[in-house]
Amino acid sequence: MSARVEKPAGSDEFGGGPALLAELELSERLMVWAFRCWIAPTSLRGYIVREFTRRFGARDCEPALQEFVRFVEALHGQTERVLHFHHPCCPCVGRDEMVILGLLASAQSGDNEGSRAAAFALTGSNRISALLSASRVLSARMADNDLFLPARHASKVAVMAVNDNAQRPWLQ
Question: Lower CB count within 10 Å: N or C terminus of the chain?
Fold first, then answer.
């Protein structure tokens, strides 16, 4: 008799990259969790303020929160397709969540080509200038507070997967 080990959903789609929140760096978990809480049907924004205060400090919390909101609003305003996310307490990481991390990591490292590819994958549109600008500002604020986002092969795989098949839903 042999035991069958199940891999988390999506792990093969990310080229062996992280499929669970626990596998992400602190800065990545913060962004995924904050985004999930911001768009959750119940208001969890107080939790975001508290966590941003903890991670950015009292002095930088408000500007960081404003930049995060600007990023979310730019994404919302320019997206022409349905984005798929997990619930705030879900341990999994979705394809679109990996693309958001890829966008922010590319912006933080100055990778304009990677940023444009990720922004296009998220929005399905060439109208991405506000999203690119917001991602640069937010990722710079993160870097100023020692919250660095790793450049992951998994984010690039997620961008390719979204671009190849944007209509296929992927949500747990």
Answer: N
**Residue 2 dihedral angles phi and psi, to the nearest 5°:** -125, 145
Closest Cα to residue 135, out of 96, 100, 98, 97? 100
Whole-angstrom Cα distance, residue 136 to residue 120?
A: 15
Q: What is the pLDDT of residues 32-57, one digit of tens each?
A: 999 999 988 778 889 999 999 999 99
Nearest to 95 by CA among 27, 148, 171: 171
Which comes out higher in pLDDT, residue 64 or 127? 64
Query: What is the pTM (predicted TM-score) of this model?
Result: 0.84
Q: How far apart are CA 71 and CA 37, in angstroms?
A: 14
Residue environment code for 26-59, b if the CB has 16+ CB neighbours within 10 A, otherwise e: ebbbbbbbbbbbbeeeeeeeeebeeebbebbeee
| Count of positions (residues) in the chain | 172
Q: Is residue 172 in a domain?
A: no
What is the residue range of 92's domain?
21-164
Q: How many domains does the chain fold into? A: 1
Cα angle vertex 36, ends 32, 39, to 5°? 140
